[in-house]
Amino acid sequence: MIYLKLIWGYLRIGLFGFGGGYAMLALIERIIVGNGWITETMFTDIVAISQMTPGPIGINSATYIGYVAPGVSSPSLSAPIWGILGSILCTLVVVVPSYILTLYMSHLIQRHRDSTIVKGIFSGLRPVVVGMIASAALLLMNEANFGSQTQEIVVSVLICLGAFAGVYWLKIHPILIIILSGIAGFLIY
């Protein structure tokens, strides 16, 4: 039964997760945390790990959740083989619909790229994607990421602002920012 739930959940993510990884974080979080497959803290850890590993966040989360969820739902499915099966299923289900839609839409857009309707659609979609990314930022501003005590919150906000300033204004490479933030977190916490 868990495999059908995973397939249904990641099929929805694959079909309706527009705008890239950050834009679909709210949808991913609602489906995987809402179904009890992982906790909110685990979700924020997945987001952090997904940023440090190659590949899109949707695929990375699908692979991880597919591995973890069978064991969480039933102790009899905690053997690695059931996790590997879940990983393969979730990864395929999240990738295949997007792949098919992208192939079809790229052909359609290429044929009608000068159409005022297509131009209008893209003009309307741009601000929506920005809003969805902003929603993901707000979604990640939770107790699991920033702590619950005043000191933890202040330190987390300072690390967040420092990382933002480093990337945005100082033009420091994001990988270096991730490494420095990890070191800061290790030393502070």
Q: Low-confidence segments, ≥5 residues, pLDDT <50?
A: none
Shape: flat
Q: Distance N terminus to C terminus?
A: 40 Å
Mean pLDDT value = 90
User: Helicity level, as a percent range?
Assistant: over 70%
Number of strands: 0
Beta content comes to under 5%
From the helix content, strand content and strand pairing, which structural class follows? mainly alpha
Rg for CA atoms: 19 Å
The helix/strand order is: HHHHHHHHH
Total DSSP helices = 9
Largest sheet: none
Explain the overall architecture.
The mean pLDDT is 90. The chain is flat and about 55 Å long. The chain is built from nine helices and no strands. The protein is mostly helical and 189 residues long. It starts with a helix and ends with a helix.
Give keywords.
0% strand; single chain; 189 residues; 79% helix; mainly alpha
Q: Would you summarize the structure shown here?
A:
This protein has 189 residues and is an all-alpha fold. It has helices spanning 2-16, 25-34, 40-52, 57-73, 80-111, 116-139, 143-146, 150-168, 174-188. It is flat, with a radius of gyration of 19 Å.
What's the SSE blueprint?
Blueprint (H helix, E strand, L loop, with lengths): L1 H15 L8 H10 L5 H13 L4 H17 L6 H32 L4 H24 L3 H4 L3 H19 L5 H15 L1
